[in-house]
């Protein structure tokens, strides 16, 4: 079984993904894959540099500078995704070649990248805006304005609700969301 896990940044997908790992599943974190590819995939990095030269002061990628560019401009974000989605998809497919009995693809751009077509089930994790902002600020050490710009650059909750098979709302305590996540996996027969 392949689960597609999506939802905006700061919603708390990590809790669900940790449970899947604990149950023996392979977790493919597309953000992590992207960051690894930034180090290893020279062709992808060259394409990013060609499109966003201002994000390469002193010839090295400044990820925060790139983020400021793409999170402020939907067309720039779309251009970056056009460069990166293909490379990330190829790596996901490579890792799925072993046909693990349980895998989860964690991707904010699950549908935009076409990775949803690999999934048996898609689930979005959602959370209240202010909780997301606070999580991002604490996790990434960023300002409130930058956290809000990252969230604003992504789809809203309704977009995910229209596309996903299931929605897990992370709208209470961490313990409550853990219980919801366990119940969800149990209901899917993922032991």
Could you estimate the helical fraction of the residues in percent? 55-70%
Instruction: Give the CA-CA distance, first to last residue.
Output: 12 Å
User: In sequence order, what are the helices and strands, one letter per element?
Assistant: EHEHHHHEEHHHEH
Main pleated sheet: 5 strands, parallel
* Structural class designation: alpha/beta
Radius of gyration: 17 Å
Beta strands, count: 5
Overall outline: globular
Strand order of the largest sheet: 2-3-1-4-5
Low-confidence stretches: none
Mean pLDDT: 93
**Beta strand %:** 5-15%
Number of helices: 9
Explain what the structure shows:
55% of the residues lie in helices and 12% in strands. It is α/β, with parallel strands linked by helices. It has a 5-stranded parallel sheet, with helices on both faces. It is globular, with a radius of gyration of 17 Å. It starts with a strand and ends with a helix.
Pick out its properties.
globular; alpha/beta; 5 strands; 191 residues; 5-stranded parallel β-sheet; 9 helices; 55% helix; single chain
Write the layout of secondary structure elements.
Blueprint: E1 2-6, H1 13-22, E2 26-29, H2 30-40, H3 42-51, H4 63-72, H5 74-96, E3 103-106, E4 121-126, H6 129-140, H7 144-152, H8 157-163, E5 166-169, H9 174-187
Parallel strand pairs: 1-3, 1-4, 2-3, 4-5
Helix pairs in contact: 1-9, 2-5, 3-5, 4-5, 4-7, 6-7
Provide a concise account of the structure shown.
The protein is an alpha/beta fold and 191 residues long. The protein contains nine helices and five strands, in the order βαβααααββαααβα.
């Amino acid at each position: 079984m392949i689960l597609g896990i999506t939802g905006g940044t700061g919603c708390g997908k990590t809790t669900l993904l940790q449970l899947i790992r604990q149950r023996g599943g392979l977790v493919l974190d597309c953000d992590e894959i992207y960051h690894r590819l930034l180090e290893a995939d020279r062709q992808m990095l060259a394409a990013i540099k060609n499109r966003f030269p201002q994000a390469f002061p002193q010839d090295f990628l400044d990820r925060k500078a790139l983020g400021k560019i793409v999170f402020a401009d939907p067309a720039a974000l779309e251009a970056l995704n056009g460069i990166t989605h293909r490379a990330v998809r190829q790596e996901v497919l490579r890792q799925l070649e072993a046909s693990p009995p349980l895998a989860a693809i964690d991707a904010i751009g699950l549908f935009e990248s076409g990775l949803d077509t690999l999934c048996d089930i898609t689930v979005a994790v959602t959370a209240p805006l202010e909780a997301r902002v606070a999580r991002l600020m604490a996790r990434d050490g960023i300002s409130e304005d930058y956290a809000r710009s990252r969230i604003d650059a992504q789809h809203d909750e309704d977009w995910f609700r229209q596309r996903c098979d299931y929605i897990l709302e992370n709208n209470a305590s961490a313990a409550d969301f853990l219980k919801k996540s366990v119940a969800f996996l149990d209901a899917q027969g993922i032991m």
